[in-house]
Amino acid sequence: MRLRLLGTGSADGWPNPWCDCASCTWARGGGVVRGQTAILVDDVLLVDCGPDVPRAAARFGVRLSGLRHLLVGHAHPDHLGPESLMWRSWSTAAGRPLDVVAPPAALEVCRAFLARWEGSDPDREGNPLRFLEAVPAGPAEPDRTGEAGGTGTAGGTLWLGEAGARYEVRPLAAHHGDASIGPAVLYDITAPDGTRLLYGCDTAVPLPASTLDAVVDRAYDVVALEENNGDRPGFGEHLGLDTFGELVGELRRRGAIHQGTEILAVHLSHRNPPGDELARRLAHVGARAPHDGESLDITPGPRPTAAVVPRRTLVLGGARSGKSAEAERRLLGEPAVVYVATSAPADASDAEWSARIAAHQARRPAAWTTVESLDLVGLLSTDGPPLLIDGIGLWIAAHLDPPDTPASPDGDGLEARTAELVEAWRNTARRVVAVSDEVGSGVVPATPAGRRFRDALGRANAALAAASDEVCQVIAGIAVPLRP
């Protein structure tokens, strides 16, 4: 399977020509231009065709004369520009067959446009355009790509092309809009050589249950998912950076994404952070943002595994710096995570503390498991899913002796407990991300107990950092790498 990305942007592209936000300014200054998302497969199958797409093909030197199958996700104009079908009728490709596969509302848009501007019945006998409804498929059916015959359908699945060169296309229900635009679908595409693509534009989470069931154990070679909203949610039924990560984790849990899957973020907009920050955030879940015009050659068989991720990550930060959110984002793409809360359970008499805990809980993906425990050594010493420990400061506070207890300056026995924790951290077989408070940069605490806590946590942070693969400090929501 050979993929050519004719566009990787949102409806308004990136940069938006009307906009002077930081992301658009960065893109404009760096010559980064993203048009409406579309992927050309083997020069014969195109997924989505907004108004930008034919012109993009021309700029990249790509001919669409060999196109035989056009798949449309829904009737929004950035996915379907019916004028391109009229332009095709003016070309040397006019008499060649073209399958137009789309949900009912999108097919009606095509028919109405062609009837108006060409003055003929789009469904007339002999018309080289063949309109095929995209009906969401259920769980995967037996592979029939090798069967004889041409275009056909069964149970929502379409087989496009001729014997020996047929594409299995499974429309899947999306979480986007209503019947007036589709209903919207995603596409599961298997090429003649057996390589497989999941095209996920546009959708929000959670995906419909029928779609989650349909992708079980599909082991896609490439997954292209929309990521429109960045860190500015609320723009329609789209994914943002965090929900993109959650969906990657869900697809991993269901065997749709495996270690060799190429994960692409597409349908990108200026709601995303500019420059390297977007790449950094996507890399946490094993994804990347391809550029317009990029080509990918996907071959059958095993693919290189994803890059090795840091096993031990320490995330430091001050109060309300965004350190917990940064730690959580690093594990969103994991199929399972154990969230270790070192704080005491919510106290109904302390409304402010209860609200803090509730906010943290609401932000975690539903598939994560929460454990309230101070036994960090025990958890680090066992096998299992990745751990997110939040946080080390509360663990230190829980092990400090009361101020009136005769003790060493860092608390009786705390030095030994901290050394045991650092050793377990150094030798753990699990992936672990820990959150800790940065201390010592402000006012010296006024009480002996406050100074004991500050000093003990400062020493613990330094020891854990020395044994970590990755350390960052979050300042005003921005993660500043300290190691590597």
The level of helicity is: 25-40%
Structural class, from helix and strand content?
alpha/beta
Q: What distance lies between the first and last C-alpha atoms, to the nearest angstrom?
A: 36 Å
Supply the number of helical segments. 13
Query: How many β-strand runs?
Result: 22
Overall mean confidence score, pLDDT: 91
Q: Order of strands in the sheet with the most strands?
A: 7-8-9-10-11-12-13-14
Largest sheet, strands/sense/barrel:
8 strands, mixed
Radius of gyration equals 26 Å
Poorly predicted ranges (pLDDT <50, ≥5 residues)? 143-149
Instruction: Tell me the β content.
Output: 15-25%
Describe this structure as you would to a colleague.
With about 475 residues, the chain is of the alpha/beta class. About 25% of the residues lie in helices and about 20% in strands. It is built from 13 helices and 22 strands. α11 crosses α13 and α12 packs parallel to α13.
Task: Give me a quick take on this structure.
The chain is built from 13 helices and 22 strands. The protein has 484 residues and is of the alpha/beta class.
Question: What is the topology?
Answer:
Layout: E1 2-7, H1 22-30, E2 38-41, E3 45-47, H2 52-59, E4 69-71, H3 83-89, E5 98-102, H4 104-118, E6 129-133, E7 152-154, E8 157-160, E9 167-173, E10 185-190, E11 196-200, H5 209-214, E12 222-226, H6 241-253, E13 262-266, H7 276-283, E14 287-288, E15 295-297, E16 312-317, H8 323-329, E17 338-341, H9 351-363, E18 369-372, H10 376-380, E19 387-390, H11 392-399, H12 414-427, E20 432-437, H13 448-466, E21 470-475, E22 478-483
